[in-house]
Amino acid sequence: MEEKWKCNEDVRAALEKYIAANDVTHAELADRLHVSATRVTKYLKLADGRVPEPDMPRVENAARNFLRHAGRRSALRESLFENSVSTAVAGVLRLIRRTGDIGLIHSPGGYGKTSGAELFSRDNQNTLLITARQYACGSNAIAAMLFNEYVQTFDARWPRTVGKMIWLEEQLRGSECLIIADNAQRFHISAFKMLMDLHDATGCALGLIGNTEVLATLRAHDPEGQLITRIGIVQKIRVKGDEELTAEKLIGQFAAESGRELIEQATDVLARGNARSLKKQLCLAREIYNSTRGEKDWAKSFQSAGTKLVKPENRRTEP
Q: Beta-carbon neighbour count of residue 49 at 10 Å?
């Protein structure tokens, strides 16, 4: 006899707590869960001993996934923030999702594309984010990352009676999930082919994010253009003049005690280089400042840190 489904009181209570803490209506929450407001209300009333309707397990699973994302988002926002780059990345990813297409977001390294992708994935349900590494960039490695990300994100169980990728394809087909693949410039050509085939088989939108050389990588291995022509959206990301705002936020993370003392210097480093170079200099400046005996000086610590790091290339001349 099939066991009757029971509401998970921990999930239901956590959802109620989220509603109270964030002052959202059932309709607003329903929009985030991708279910109707009536479904949300009925699920929350199960605590009264009401008999669950057939679609309540789906609502609870959506709630569980949403709460997991909300928790990860809160932790992530302590170290990341929105600026022109993350906003631009999010805008292109939303367009890719709406069209169900394959898209490519690129720029020189260090602009903050990865941070933008991480923020987007934490703010948007039904999104899978994987990141290639030099030692894990072929089709098998990327497939394994995607499988693990799906299982962890959706708390899914692989039945072991079928191959992992065949099973994953079945789970993703028609799910309208967005797959984000970061560090795409590191991909072996086999990884591009695997992800594009998965896109064809499932209909899931695919967002490729990488440094600008990703285009050269594709063209070098695709002389007839069969792969690159499958990419529908290509967007180059540029910093849009918010260097001072970004500098302020990075200083707040790595050298908050300095107040506004480093704003001018940090903004100049950011304008000439990128967010990654500024993070490194601020981190080192903090170490120098904390290890200085006697009178401490943030400006001198920051300048000293700059002499110990590789000078960033001048980004002002970028077209």
A: 7
CA–CA separation, 166 and 155 (whole Å): 18
Beta strands of the chain (E only): which ranges? 102-107, 127-131, 178-182, 205-211, 233-236
Task: Return the structure tokens found at 298.
Answer: 């943030």
Using an 8 Å Cβ cutoff, are 29 and 40 in contact? Answer: yes
- Which of 182, 207, 236 is the endpoint of a domain? 236
Asked whether residue 99 is domain-assigned, the answer is yes
Residues 6+ apart with CB under 8 A from 21: none
Q: In this structure, is residue 141 part of a structural domain?
A: yes
Collapse the DSSP code of 77 into the 3-class scheme (helix H, G, I; strand E, B; otherwise coil) and give the result. Answer: coil
Domain boundary among the residues 192, 219, 236 is at 236
Residue 52: give the domain boundaries: 9-76
* 168-180 tens-digit pLDDT: 999 999 999 999 9
For residue 248, tell me if it sits in a domain.
yes
Binned at pLDDT 50, 70 and 90, residue 215 comes out as: confident
Indicate the number of domains in the chain. 3
Structure-block tokens of residue 30: 């329903």
Question: Is it the case that residue 315 has pLDDT exceeding 70?
Answer: no
One domain for residues 42 and 101: no
Residue type, 40: V
- Supply the mean pLDDT for the chain: 87
Q: What is the largest CA-CA distance in the chain?
A: 76
Between the two ends of the chain, the Cα-to-Cα distance in Å is 68
Residue from 102, 129, 100, 126 nearest 115 by CA? 129
User: What are the angstrom distances between the C-alpha of 244 and each of 112, 225, 240, 310?
Assistant: 15, 41, 11, 22
Could you give the 3-state DSSP secondary structure of residue 129? Answer: strand
Banded pLDDT at 255 (limits 50, 70, 90) = confident
CA 152/CA 53 separation, integer angstroms: 27
Strands 233-236 and 205-211: unpaired
Q: pTM for this one? A: 0.71
